[in-house]
Design brief:
single chain, 318 residues, alpha/beta, three-stranded mixed beta sheet, 12 helices, 11 strands, 48% helix, globular
């Protein structure tokens, strides 16, 4: 079985009022957990790789692990570059995207959001032209999400909501296949200030959908920072004070609208860490990695299944 692009996934998701989960991968246990959960629930899935993940695990290892997952589950899987080129010069950004296109990815994101509108269009179109010639789809980004995640580091002061007046021109001139927008989500585990009410700008999403009818929209920074995981980590010696995420009911509402892809990374990290801390706290004599990584894998699988069933609505959509 081969990797698929997201074109058919997003068409079905848009028409069906659900979203496909894009889960970040870093190692074998995470890949196994995500794909096993998706396979058991008959859900399409996107496995996405950040620059940090490629540096940590190395490109070839991730490719081979994903190939093994496809063979063992038989479900449609897209392999996606997350935030390609973030913070890099145009030439370095293009080189990163090109490396993933040439290296077997079926989908890539070019993040030109740190450039002005015109420069973002130029860089994104350059990547689209190259990727489309190789049969690879491209996600672009308009607007800036705050927060920190791997190569992405944007302060709250520099964050910018997506301007709906720009989306038609951007999509038309670049030829992107999907568009990530900024409506109030944020990278990392600290998305909102303590005491403030989490809020997403659904008015912006609605306006973007009007300007781009039928076009797939993407939400980055959409982990819910699940309170039970945060509590368990803290109970086992962690220190995640004031970690706050996007309420799941807001994400489900977005998935019922034009959002076809929801990115989840922090919740994977939290699930894995909670499992490891629980084992190490209860049984400090253990030193076999399989003892704690096996539990961590189970926790990630449970979390992914929860997202598919209760947030994304992508179960039984294969």
């Amino acid at each position: 079985m081969s990797l698929v692009t997201t074109k058919e996934m997003f068409k079905k998701a848009y028409e069906g009022g659900y979203a496909v989960g894009a889960f970040n991968i870093n190692n074998m246990e995470i890949i196994q957990a995500i794909t096993e959960a998706a396979g058991e629930l008959n859900s399409p899935v996107i496995l996405q790789v950040s620059a940090g993940a490629r540096k940590y695990a190395r490109h070839i290892y991730l490719i081979k692990l994903v190939e093994a997952a496809m063979e063992s589950t038989g479900i449609p899987i897209a392999l996606h570059l997350d935030h390609g080129g973030a913070g890099k010069s145009p030439d370095d950004a293009f080189a990163e995207v090109k490396s993933c296109v040439d290296g077997g990815f079926s989908s890539v994101m070019i993040d030109g959001s740190h450039y002005n509108f015109t420069e973002n269009i130029e860089l994104t179109k350059r990547c689209v032209d190259y990727a489309h010639a190789k049969g690879v789809v491209v996600e672009g980004e308009l607007g800036k999400l705050s927060g920190i995640e791997d190569a992405v580091n944007v302060s709250a002061e520099d964050a910018q909501f997506t301007n709906p007046d720009e989306v038609q021109e951007f999509v038309t001139k670049t030829g992107v296949d999907s568009l990530a927008i900024a409506i109030g989500t944020s990278h990392g585990a600290y998305k909102f200030k303590p005491g403030t009410k989490p809020r997403l700008r659904f008015d912006i999403l609605e306006e973007v959908a009007k300007r781009l009818p039928g076009f797939p929209i993407v939400l980055h920074g959409a982990s819910s920072v699940m309170p039970d995981l945060v509590a368990e980590i803290n109970d086992c010696g962690g220190k995640l004070d004031d970690a706050i995420g996007v309420p799941e009911e807001m994400l489900r509402q977005a998935a019922s609208m034009a959002v076809c892809k929801i990115n989840i990374d922090s919740d994977i990290r939290l699930a894995m860490t909670a499992g490891i801390r629980r084992v190490m706290t209860a049984s400090p004599q253990l030193f076999d990695p399989r003892d704690y990584l096996g539990v961590a894998r189970t926790e990630v699988k449970k979390m992914v299944a929860h997202k598919i069933l209760n947030v994304l609505g992508s179960d039984n959509k294969i």
